[in-house]
Structures are given as structure tokens and as C-alpha cells.
Design brief:
Blueprint (H helix, E strand, L loop, with lengths): L1 E8 L6 E11 L7 H9 L8 H16 L3 E11 L2 E10 L8
Antiparallel strand pairs: 1-2, 2-3, 3-4
Amino acid sequence: MEIPEFTCLCPLTGQPDFAVLSLEYVPDRLCVELKSLKLYVWSFRDQGTFHEALTNRMLEDLVKATQPRFMRLTAKFNVRGGIYTSIVAEHRKRGWKAQT
């Protein structure tokens, strides 16, 4: 899934941060419901948070809600202070291995 219009706020300046989120996962018994994901993503719009903390928190919340076999969240933030930031967070269920 690709979420191209993610926004949150810089916790220091309050200025908006923009990112493209990519969510890849291998479900187990539950899957991510798109409308719920959209509403969850929108909940960060007025929150001040650091990029790394945000990416890790989102992955933790999504893993807790769906208990997937595998999940990877990539957050590619637009430039801030002349630097583009890309954060990748991953979860693997114990014992799970990707098929070749």
C-alpha cells in the first residue's frame, strides 16, 4: 500500500512535515482495512513527532492490531533543513521466513 499524502508536524518548529508511506505485509489471520488505515494515518496530522519515532510507533500499532507474519513500513519524508529522511521499520513473526 502506498500513502502519498501523509502529514504530521515538526515537534520543534510546528511546521508541517510531508511523507510518502509504503506498507508491505504478509498477513496471518487479519488484514489491514483501508478505511481504518486512512483514518489512523490522518490522526497524525496535528501531532508533533520525530520521523524515527513516528515510523516505529506506526509499525508497532499496526503489528499489534493485525499480528502479521511480516510487515515493513517505509516512510520517505520530504526535505527538512536540506535533508531528505527515509526510515524503514520491519517486523517478522518468530520463525517466519520468506518464500523464495
